[in-house]
Design brief:
Blueprint lengths: L1 H18 L5 H24 L9 H24 L2 H8 L2 H11 L7 H18 L12 H19 L5 H23 L6 H25 L4 H8 L1 H14 L5 H33 L1
Helix pairs in contact: 1-3, 1-9, 1-11, 2-8, 2-9, 3-7, 3-8, 4-11, 4-12, 5-6, 5-7, 6-12, 10-12
């Protein structure tokens, strides 16, 4: 299920880069959220009724939706200027950024090994971005803003998941993004010359909705630490999409940075699994 979700997200990002050359960014963003919100509502509401909208944390639900919308906006802007594979690799340092937030904001203890993995992941990011190099542009910094908003989104998600239904969270996320994006829609709306662009916009919404549903189903069946290493398959799938659609292959330095991010991220997930098992051993005994 996680690998299927990664394939959906890679397809979403590749299609986003394709349509960003023609479709206004905010218009594409509205389609992505509106499709997800409507599809989720139609599939969930008949079975669950209005009770699925009940939440104990309405303010945090809205804040979570705003953070994800900001992340999506930065993602769409990044993909307009960056290759899909390199963009995806930089975004995948989010789990490492969450470690920094856990230590600095939540005051959680972080082991030296985990700090080393964080340093390795950020080093890989610098190798891809290469500040001061010929390949560096201001657009290379956009994914770093996405990492920050996404890290806060994940921390808030972890907090809400203790008391909130994941389907309720998914509904609020979709509708908050749709309603905010709707404010700008009349200003940015434009006629699309090619009918395939309409199909691409609908495909983006479909991939976003299906991908998030598959993640929810996966996390209901297995611990996050077990599933996290599989998320890094999205880097390879994004590189495949970039090659098939745009004939782009990362250079040697970018491949080195991508490998470092994937290795450090997977190592962090392995550490989490190991720490969880060690914490449960006295209880099992």
């Amino acid at each position: 299920m996680v690998l299927g979700a990664c394939a959906c997200f890679a397809a979403l990002d590749t299609t986003t880069k394709y349509v960003s050359a023609t479709v206004p960014l905010l218009m594409a963003l509205w389609f992505r959220y509106a499709f997800q919100a409507v599809a989720t509502t139609v599939s969930v509401l008949p079975a669950r009724g209005m009770s699925v909208l009940r939440t104990m944390q309405p303010k945090f639900q809205v804040l979570r939706g705003v953070l994800l919308l900001a992340s999506s906006l930065l993602a769409f802007a990044s993909l307009k200027y960056m290759p899909v594979g390199e963009f995806t690799a930089i975004v995948m340092i989010s789990p490492l950024a969450i470690t920094v937030l856990a230590a600095t904001v939540l005051k959680e203890r972080v082991s030296p090994m985990r700090w080393a993995l964080v340093a390795g992941g950020f080093a890989g990011t610098l190798i891809i971005i290469r500040p001061g190099g010929q390949a560096f542009t201001w657009a290379s910094l956009l994914p770093l803003g996405l990492v920050v908003t996404n890290a806060w989104f994940q921390v808030l998600t972890s907090k809400l998941a203790r008391t909130e239904d994941p389907v309720t969270m998914h509904l609020y996320t979709g509708w908050v993004g749709t309603l905010i994006a709707s404010v700008a829609l009349p200003v940015v709306w434009t006629a699309l010359p090619n009918p395939w662009l309409w199909a691409a916009l609908c495909f983006m919404g479909l991939m976003g909705a299906v991908g998030h549903f598959m993640l929810i189903l996966a996390y209901q069946r297995a611990p996050a630490a077990t599933l996290t290493p599989y998320l890094y398959a999205q880097i390879a799938l994004a590189m495949l999409g970039g090659w098939l659609v745009f004939s782009h292959v990362p250079d040697g330095w970018s491949l080195l940075g991508i490998a470092m991010i994937a290795a450090c991220g997977a190592g962090g997930a392995w550490l989490t699994m190991r720490e969880t098992r060690l914490a449960l051993e006295p209880i099992e005994a």
